[in-house]
Amino acid sequence: MIIKNISENIFHKNIVKIILLSLSFFDLSFCQQSKPENYLQKPSQSRFYANDITDIVVHQNTIWFGSSKGLISTSNDGLNFSSYANISGIGEGHIATVNVDKDGVIWISTVFDSTTSVGNMDVGGGLSYSTDSGTNWNWIPQPVDAVSDTDGGKKPTTVAVSNITWDIAFKDDEVWIGSWAGGLRKSTDFGKTWEVVTPDGIPFDVLGNLNHRVFSVINAQNGLWVGTAAGINKSTDGGKTWTLYNAQNGSGISGNFVNGIAEQIYQGRSIIWASTWKAEGENEYYGVSKTENGGLTWETFLEGEKPHAFAFYENEVYVAADNGLFKSIDFGKSWALFPQITDEYGNSIMTTETYSIAVKGNDLWVGTGDGLAKTSDRGNTWKIFRAFKSTAEEGEPATYAYPNPFSPIRHNVIGGEGHVRIQYNTTSETTVTIKIFDFGMNLVKDLISDKTRPASGDYYELWDGRNENGVYVANGVYFYKLELSGEKTAWGKIVVIN
Question: How far apart, in whole angstroms, are the C-alpha atoms of residue 262 and residue 310?
Fold first, then answer.
């Protein structure tokens, strides 16, 4: 697991947040955590629920998805999905990470935004675990230290601000978590108590020590591996002693922001792959770093790419990155970039940014900011899952646009162009025409004219935010007219903000 849905600007923003984290400087009373209220008694089952997929974990026949809309699962390879949003025992916010231990206990962490006197801050929503496949959940407040916990020069983290758990791992009966402001911690009693473990033996201090700001942690065959803002740390004795690999000490990794670590087991070999982003060093660069000998030597690949997550199928390596999905069949010597993900109906994932990835049998699952995709034939064909409200449902408008407000340079960017979807439904074979107007009702764009839709169903059309001359429209409110032959004319509104 990694910081699947946190882009480069969030990394650097969090540095500022940590520096600002001086408890006497602003009001943190909002961070007092309370147990989540009891909303729903059991998960609801329906179609897919979210378009921002931050994490994917496979356990036996069930696939778990972390998203901005909460936890989602499927036990029948996507025929239907269960949503765990607003369930008692699950913390506030979106899912930061998901993992399942050897006994089938599901663990998640959450993160939410809140307002402080210094602006919006990310706040750890705590951890939750389920011992019965997600039916019931137990919530644990975000682990913090007591104000008085200063033994040996330790500088405690006493609030949940910027204290987000980005990764969870398991070793024997221990639960290990990696948190930005909370550091590396372990628990042997299901989260009732936590022990801070610094990956360098230095007293805990996230303000002054980059190596205590943790992004990722895994328990591999050859030891514990921890990714921080200062490199990769390895321990072969359960966290008592550590070895640090960074871009400055000759190890050969590409960068010190290590937002993801994964282990590939192939023919008895343990291969460690890491997402190593450029931090502050002049010679650092974005890329993937790999070791096949326990860290003695490292190789780097995909220079300049910003990776997020890894998945493996025998000798195949998959990397989810900002510029798309990469694959190697020779352990990184050569790479292929998948083309834009498009299904048999012509629907496409309208972004290159892939955040999460997992393999289940012959199926490859890919999580993006524009939905979830699955291929069973190594990318030759795809099935796309996307959350939307059908305009055919009672009480829904005849058409709507999303995302809305829409930024042509930020939303659903593919090939350098952003896109907004105009959603509608048909009740029979028809043709569709869409025209876009400005606030003064001047024609801006003939989007489509008499396009055939051969059957009833839910459809969408795409607009890139440009006018008839190919120029981006100005910020403001725009109206569109949807005409379906033989049916009513409908109007919708799009707010454009760059």
Answer: 6
Outline where 189-332 has alpha helix (H).
none
Domains and CATH numbers, the chain: 8-385 (2.130.10.10), 399-496 (2.60.40.4070)
- Cα–Cα dist 287/55, whole Å: 20
Query: 394: burial class by Cβ within 10 Å (0-12, 13-18, 19+)?
Result: exposed
Q: What's the residue count for the chain?
A: 498
Could you tell me which residues are beta bridge partners of residue 184?
A: 178
Q: Copy the structure tokens of residue 13.
A: 């923003």
Instruction: Say which amino acid occupies 105.
Output: V
User: Mean pLDDT for each 10-residue chunk of the chain (498 residues)?
Assistant: 39 40 35 47 60 95 95 94 90 95 97 84 96 96 95 93 96 97 97 97 95 98 97 97 95 96 96 96 96 97 98 97 97 96 92 96 96 95 92 93 93 91 94 96 96 91 96 97 93 95
**How far is residue 99's CA from residue 103's CA, in Å, rounded to a whole number?**
12
- From CA 397, how far away is CA 490, in angstroms rounded? 9
Identify the three-state secondary structure at position 222.
Answer: coil
CA-CA distance, 41 to 87, in Å (whole number)? Answer: 7
Q: Please, which residues bridge with residue 53 across strands?
A: 67
128: number of CA atoms within 13 Å, CB side?
A: 31
What is d(CA 455, CA 359) in angstroms, rounded to the nearest whole number?
A: 34
Q: Does residue 89 contact residue 139 with C-beta atoms inside 8 Å?
A: yes
Q: Which residues of 248-273 are buried (b: 16+ CB within 10 A; e: fewer)?
A: eeebbbbbbbbbbbbbbeeeeebbbb
Rounded CA separation 364/376 (Å): 6
Q: Report the C-alpha gap between 317 and 333 in whole angstroms.
A: 11
Residue 210, SS3 per DSSP:
helix
